[in-house]
Design brief:
Largest sheet of chain A: 5 strands, mixed
Number of strands of chain B: 5
Strand content of chain B: 25-35%
Number of domains of chain A: 1
Distance between the termini of chain A: 34 Å
Number of helices of chain B: 4
Helix content of chain A: 40-55%
CATH architecture of chain A: 2-Layer Sandwich
Number of strands of chain A: 5
CATH superfamily of chain B: Histidine kinase-like ATPase, C-terminal domain
CATH class of chain A: Alpha Beta
CATH superfamily of chain A: STAS domain
Oligomer: heterodimer
Helix content of chain B: 25-40%
Strand order of the largest sheet of chain B: 1-2-3-5-4
Strand order of the largest sheet of chain A: 1-2-3-4-5
Structural class of chain A: alpha/beta
CATH architecture of chain B: 2-Layer Sandwich
Radius of gyration of chain A: 13 Å
Number of helices of chain A: 5
Largest sheet of chain B: 5 strands, antiparallel
CATH topology of chain B: Heat Shock Protein 90
Radius of gyration of chain B: 15 Å
Order of helices and strands of chain A: EEHEHEHHEH
CATH topology of chain A: Transcription Regulator spoIIAA
Shape of chain A: globular
Shape of chain B: globular
Strand content of chain A: 25-35%
């Protein structure tokens, strides 16, 4: 599992690649936490296009970041999840509380900026 | 012998230490055996999630994250489906009914969806546990009957 970060204004974009399970969830959590701390971001865009597997360990990391960032009025957006991961997000109810979009993060942020 | 219906076409047994990196190993091994059957990619993904959840539960809850416990995974490929058994010799589950409730978790960073995913993605789920002795999870999934014999 690898995470690549970039920043666009007040948004932190995290591109996650590989498999997120018990063996990688802690590292994903730590990397997201330290980058969020550093970037002081209001929006976290999680680009999951490159994630080939995720289980509830990964969903827990996403929910944890959502709880943290929404406390300060921010939000989490999930971009381009693979169909099997989209299904997990739906089953877990995460698609009810955060935006899940098919655009890549920059495209989403561009559109959101125009609205 | 497995309780599922039909002839046993193949069996694989794995035993490994309760290390997080073995979750992926168990998932890939079970998927490789499952792929011998006539199975869709979607079914394969469901099986991988169910195995990950069961093995992660054994490591986190059975052994409290300690890496010195043994986890055993047995997969029986049957004529009409797959039977997966995940066992540990850990501390056991005091209240199985409570543990199986969706969103029940002892850890705020975990979602408590492990059993919910196992139930959603497999056709049958049986959990037996004894405090101080361990937990046994049996999951079964019906697949298209195999036309070839092993």
């Amino acid at each position: 599992m690898q995470v690549f970060f970039s920043q666009e204004g007040s948004a932190l974009i995290a591109r996650v690649k590989g498999e997120v399970d018990l063996s990688t969830a802690d590292r994903l959590r730590q990397e997201l936490e330290s980058s969020l701390e550093h970037a002081r971001a209001h929006i976290l865009c999680l680009d999951l296009e490159g994630v080939s597997f995720m289980d509830s360990s990964g969903l827990g990391v996403i929910l944890g970041r959502y709880r943290r960032i929404s406390q300060t009025g921010g939000k989490v957006v999930i971009c381009r999840p693979q169909p099997q991961i989209r299904r997990l997000l739906d089953l877990a109810g995460l698609s009810k509380i955060m935006d899940i979009v098919e655009e890549e993060p920059q495209e989403y942020l561009r559109k959101a900026g125009k609205e | 012998m497995p309780k599922g219906n039909g002839e046993v076409l193949n069996t694989v047994r794995l035993e490994f230490l309760s290390l997080p990196e073995n979750v992926g190993l168990a998932r890939v091994a079970v998927a490789a055996l499952a792929a011998q059957a006539d199975i869709t990619l979607s079914e394969l993904e469901e099986i991988k999630v169910a195995v990950s959840e069961a093995v992660a539960n054994a490591i986190i809850h059975g052994y409290g994250g300690e890496p010195r416990g043994w986890v055993r995974v047995t997969v029986n490929r049957l004529q009409d489906g797959l039977e997966i058994i995940v066992e540990d010799d850990g501390k056991g589950i005091p209240d199985i009914a409570q543990a199986m409730q969706p969103a029940y978790s002892t850890d705020p960073e975990r979602m408590g969806l492990g059993f919910a995913f196992m139930q959603s993605f497999m056709d049958e789920l049986e959990v037996t546990s004894e405090e101080g002795r361990g937990t046994r999870v049996v999951m079964r999934k019906k697949l298209n009957p195999s036309v070839t014999t092993a």
